[in-house]
Write a structure and sequence with these properties.
2 copies of one chain form a homodimer. Chain A is built from 7 helices and 10 strands. By secondary structure, chain A is an alpha/beta fold. In chain A, helix 3 runs parallel beside helix 5 and helix 4 packs across helix 5. At the A-B interface, helix 5 and helix 6 of A face helix 5 and helix 6 of B. The complex binds adenosine-5'-triphosphate (2 copies) and magnesium ion (2 copies).
Chain lengths: ~220, ~220
Amino acid sequence: MIEVAQLSKTYRLGNQEVYALREVSFNISKGELVSIMGPSGSGKSTLMNLLGCLDLPSGGSYHLANIDVQSLKANELAEVRNKQIGFVFQNFNLLPRATALENVELPLLYGRIPQSRIKALDSLDKVGLRDRAKHRPNELSGGERQRVAIARAIVNNPSIILADEPTGNLDSKTGVEILNSFKQLNAEGATIILVTHDPSVSDQCPRTLFMMDGCLSKDERKPVS
Amino acid sequence: MIEVAQLSKTYRLGNQEVYALREVSFNISKGELVSIMGPSGSGKSTLMNLLGCLDLPSGGSYHLANIDVQSLKANELAEVRNKQIGFVFQNFNLLPRATALENVELPLLYGRIPQSRIKALDSLDKVGLRDRAKHRPNELSGGERQRVAIARAIVNNPSIILADEPTGNLDSKTGVEILNSFKQLNAEGATIILVTHDPSVSDQCPRTLFMMDGCLSKDERKPVS
Ligand SMILES: Nc1ncnc2c1ncn2[C@@H]1O[C@H](COP(=O)(O)OP(=O)(O)OP(=O)(O)O)[C@@H](O)[C@H]1O
Ligand SMILES: Nc1ncnc2c1ncn2[C@@H]1O[C@H](COP(=O)(O)OP(=O)(O)OP(=O)(O)O)[C@@H](O)[C@H]1O
Ligand SMILES: [Mg+2]
Ligand SMILES: [Mg+2]
């Protein structure tokens, strides 16, 4: 499903180079639930942006469902992002002038999916925010914004969910509820990759990729209770 | 030092009222290290904004160092915020077009403090980001932005530090380093209030205020190893 080979990303800043990702290689099969951990600045979000087709690598290759992502045109990449991938951003990326409901509805409108309003309300309901539907992002708490971002990522039932620290702003009880939603979606067939700093989230994933200084330092599979 | 009596905050949204904070009362003495915990949406950031003089309550009173905050004019409130309080925002609130160094330097420039550039570099060094000084926020990882926000809050040695989920985007090792910086500042006399969802952070604070639905549900003091 996801095949990454020698994937690299270098940022240039003035005359300085930042090697954010260095020749990372791994495969993820359809239906896996994988966590990614590592120190702040180790390249996790950079990797997620490449996996989510939001950015292109400086080197190496990325095949998604056997398609070489670097061979796609811009509109084809947009189609993949809209139809196949649900992305929860570390900083949420909500539209500031739209309500929670409008933010969640957006991927459905892009994809011309019918009954978008009902589906969006349903998704908000799943993250416990039905009564916040009319609030704009600046009228929501940090954890509520995070949950709107999650609701938006799962609303069109994507086959791949990429969530960058989805429980960072949530208390443990709400975090557990969100993790259970992800496990439910995984049980229904979605391939899920979660970046997390929380060992209790990572412990519930059968596989964990550890990042260090832009490299993959360890690929650990473990039994999960 | 901090005296809060029947403090309330109600947001109005169209014809709906949101009781974000409901008659909260507590006192915090100079030099205390206090954590605030509670479910997402329970009013923690709302309370922090009032304590930080960033917003005014709908009811009740807030005395800071014996001054009734509601009696202050706008420029006096700005003076208190700049000279006495260091605030770490849950969503960082960094200036997007300024570098990390310029962001950290800003409170010193406002306060006309000399040697601002050296002090700002020193503060960035304390959070492990000396080599990210020239990066702008969108050229930093989530945890690096959080640390720039922390560096900015502590750069002018404030007597009160209000940190809203300061380790939410940090791996455990970096989070421990940041918490140790706060404990060091507390040992040097700063009064520190941390909102956190992380029990391991809260366990290191001798006192924890628990919020629930806008109310203070418990005020717990405990011995700390
Ligand atoms: N400007 C606003 N208008 C209307 N409602 C608001 C506004 N700001 C916050 N709220 C609501 O007030 C409640 C408390 O918000 P607050 O940000 O204090 O929560 P919190 O405890 O910090 O949550 P979190 O842990 O998710 O950050 C939330 O339910 C939120 O939806
Ligand atoms: N646009 C950019 N220009 C230059 N450097 C960048 C840029 N974006 C990220 N970086 C750097 O690349 C490194 C990796 O960033 P990345 O966001 O992938 O880290 P991360 O593992 O997600 O960290 P965190 O846990 O703090 O979110 C960081 O050190 C960061 O400073
Ligand atoms: Mg990140
Ligand atoms: Mg908050």
